Amino acid sequence: MKSALDVSKVSTLETELLQNLDERVFFGKLSIFLQDLFNEYKVQVFEAYPDGASELVAENGEEIHNGIFYQKGQGLAGYVIRTKRAYYSNSPRDPLLASTKRDDCVHSEICVPLISEGAIIGTVNIQSKDEDRKFSEDDITVVNELTEKLKSPLNNIRLYLIAKNLNRELELKIKEKEEELLHRGPSVNKTSQSLGKIEMVGTSHAFLEIVNIAKKVAKEDFPVHISGEAGTGKKMLAKKIHSISERKESSCLTVHCASIDEKQLELELFGSTQRPGAIQRANGGTLILNGVEHMTEASQRKLLRFLVSGELYNIDSSAPLPVNVRMITTTKADIAKLADEGEFNEELLYRLNIMSIKMPSLRERKDDVKILSEKFINEMSKNSGKMLTNKAVDKLKAYSWPGNIHELKNLMERTAILVSEQFIDEAHLPELEAEIEVQEEVIEDFSEMTLHDLERIHICKTLDHLGGNKTRAAKSLGITVKTLYNKLHSYGLVNPKSE
Fold it and tell me: What tens digit of pLDDT does each residue of 114-125 get?
């Protein structure tokens, strides 16, 4: 084995790896480099999967498809992935190798984890058939020195593998959903569609007030109308009401009124003699109409007739069907205003709006930002116990969150993927524009004012809004802290900021 790494060759390898995001080609190039470096019988690279399993993807520079596969903890690779520590064995009778598949001629082997940002993406296994070859800590050091120099390409392939695994999981979920929809029919009515525990978290006054109302209306059986901005959790609250109601053991179905055209919506809601609609399938349970303001005039009339009579008519039949369904509707529009303008059936609104609940925006429940953020991060990180620092929480609270909880959830899931540290600091978060409320002023008469005076007024208002925090104020104004101090000094408010 060569005593030291050739800097120029390592640099060439780094360039080649940075240009490639196919894991088999990537690990193949890494394995042939180590093969030349150690000059041993075999150099194998196993890819580590999120569930702890591993698969052989490269050997002596060759791409391996459908290679050796180990379940979690199996084989030498599985042991190293689980312990996150390198291991070498100089005895063919090592009991740890009992579940490891390798050629009979192999006498000794070393296995080193490939770690990027604290996450194991694979292992390097170097095998020797020379009986006199004894692996040691020095060999581990050589491999670790190489991977340290390849930090950038290893980070790139880590991010690629994360995205690839997420796509794979998404495809499986889509396939499962397609199969569920394909086999959906009249029998899907009772407990097979019932919900489990619906968890909503928060400690703010606005949130606790909504939860208290939900608990009260869940005991009743009348329609509920939930309004609020996009991403505030209207559908989640609707499901929560069902899950704690007397109908909880029966179906809870959701129809997205804005996602399908008029004919499809009528078929989906009222069904036909050949295919039951959502109202019929939810018999005995709850039907959630998401985005009810998007229902057509014809669909609104049919829904009103059903609510008044309690009898359902399929789109191709005049025979009434007795159905007992609780209706919960959600909207992000001002549905009362739409009714006043003739855009929504006023009588239907009265039937749906017996109990109205307005979901607060995330701006109205800033005290819940921390608990929600850590919930989303740890759900994505498999409950790793990650926490936000106070500065990170302050940064999140300063943002206006136009996308509400959905936007926060997306940001936290992205953070969970990119950050491996236990504590999430403000530096780990992307730039977020601080919320600055601009109060509209009614100017009855024009008054002359210099740009200097106008600038002074705006800077003072910004500081007042941000509680006197000069660092955040300077960032919001797009200037340096030193410039801000100098401007305040020119107004006679503070001493100038020195270098």
Answer: 998 888 999 999
Tokens of 22: 């196919």
Q: Is beta strand 54-59 parallel, antiparallel or unpaired with respect to 42-48?
A: antiparallel
Q: Are 364 and 202 in contact (CB under 8 A)?
A: no
Instruction: Tell me which residue of 481, 447, 448, 450 sits closest to 463, measured CA to CA.
Output: 481
Q: What is 7-161's CATH number?
A: 3.30.450.40
Query: DSSP characters for 395-422?
Result: HHHTB--TTHHHHHHHHHHHHHHH--SS
CATH of 436-499, one of 3.40.50.300, 1.10.10.60, 1.20.1270.360, 2.60.120.560: 1.10.10.60
Please state, in angstroms and rounded to a whole number, the distance separating the CA atoms of residues 84 and 81: 5
Claim: this prediction has a pTM higher than 0.90: no
| Alpha helices (runs of H) in 221-261, residue ranges in sequence order | 234-243
- What is the residue type of 122? G
> pLDDT tens, 144-167?
999 999 999 899 888 888 888 777
